[in-house]
Amino acid sequence: MDKLIGAAIAIVTVPIVLIGYIVLAEWVIKRFPQKTGDRLRPVLWVFPAVAMLFVFLVYPMIVTVWFSLWNFDPAGVNFTSFAGLENYATFFTNNDTLTALRNNGLWVILLPLLAVGIGLVIAVLVDRVRYESVVKSVVFLPMAISFVAATVIWKLVYDFNPRIGILNAGVDAAGGEPIAFIQDSPAWPAPLNTVMLVLVGTWMLTGFAMVILSAGLKAIPSELLEAARVDGANEWYVFRKIIFPLLLPTIAVITTTVIIFGLKTFDVVYTMTSGNFDTEVIANRMYKELAVFHEPGRASATAMILLAAIVPVMIYNIRRFREQEAQR
Fold it and tell me: Residues 12-36: pLDDT tens digits?
C-alpha cells in the first residue's frame, strides 16, 4: 500500500515540478533584457536534462570507477584496502569471466547475423505481397512482450521432457534421444546452450530489424528498381546491386544497435540458466559479483570493462547518424 501511495505521489509530483520549473524559468528570463534572456533561455531549458544526465549517468560512472579500485569487507559494505588495478587483473585471469567474454563474443557475432539477416530477408520477400502487413505483424509480435516473458516461453520449448519441450517432442517423435538444449555445451562448433540462448534474442529482435529495414526499403525509389527490371535484371541482381548497397547505412545502424544488446545481454541468460552450464555473460557476472559474492570492487571493474566495450560501438553509431543527417 505504501508503495502504491509513493508511486501515485511521484506520478502527480513530477509533472507539477516540471511545470513549476518552466514557469519559474520564464519568469526569471523576463527579468533580463531581451538579448540576455534569449541567451539564457536555452541554458535554463536544457539544465534539467543535463542535471538528470549527471545524477543518473555521470555521477554513478565516477563512483563505479572509484569502487573498482578498492577491496571490500566480506559484507561488501566498507572499504578495506586499495586494490588499484587488481580487480581488473582478476577479471582477465578468472576462468568464469573468460567464459563470459567468450560467450559475449558469440552473442556479438551470432545475434546481428541472425536477427539482421533474417529481418532483411523477410523485409525483402514480403515487400510487394498483399499480406505484407500480416506477416510483419506476426514477426514483430515478440517485441510486444518482455525478454523475461520470452525466456520463460523458450525455457519450456527447450525443456528436456518431451511431454513439455516442443523441440524434444520432435526429437522423440523422430526416434532420437532427448537433448539438454540449455545444459549441454560442447566445445565445437559452438556451445549449444549459448547458441540456443542467442536464438531467443534473435526471435525477439528480428521483428525490430525487419521493421527498420522495411522502412529503408520503402524509401528506395521504385522507378530505380523498375528501370533495372526493364533492362533485363533479375530479382537477385536487383537486390545485390541496387537494394543492398542502398540499405547498407540502415543495416549498419541496426547492426550496431543489436551488437550493443549482445554486449549487455543479461535477462535472457539470468532467467534461463543464471549463467550456469558455461552460459555466463559479462552483465550476469557483474550481478553475481555484487549480489552473490558481495564483491563491489570486482563488480564495478566488470561494469567498467563492459562500458569500455560498448562505448566504441556507440561512438560509431553516433557518427553514422551524423553522416546520414549531413547527407540530407
Answer: 887 888 888 888 888 888 888 888 8
For 60-73, how does the pLDDT look when each residue is reduced to its tens digit (9 = 90+)? 999 999 999 999 88
Amino acid 300: pLDDT: 93
Say yes or no to pLDDT of 297 above 80: yes
pLDDT at 189: 61
Dihedral, CA of residue 91, residue 97, residue 98 and residue 102, to nearest 10:
-130
Task: Spell out the long-range contacts of 252-256 with Cβ–Cβ below 8 A and sequence spacing 24 or more.
Answer: 252/320, 253/212, 253/317, 253/320, 253/321, 253/324, 254/116, 254/119, 254/208, 254/209, 254/212, 254/213, 255/112, 255/116, 256/313, 256/314, 256/316, 256/317, 256/320
By three-state DSSP, how is residue 269 classified? helix
Residues 301, 302, 306, 309, Cα dihedral to 10°: 60
At 281, phi and psi to the nearest 5? -130, 165
| Cell numbers at 264, concatenated | 549487455
- Decide if pLDDT at 39 tops 70: yes
238 closest CA partner among 249, 253, 227, 252: 227
Is 217 in contact with 123 (CB distance < 8 Å)?
yes
Cα dist from 151 to 204, 230, 280, whole Å: 10, 48, 16
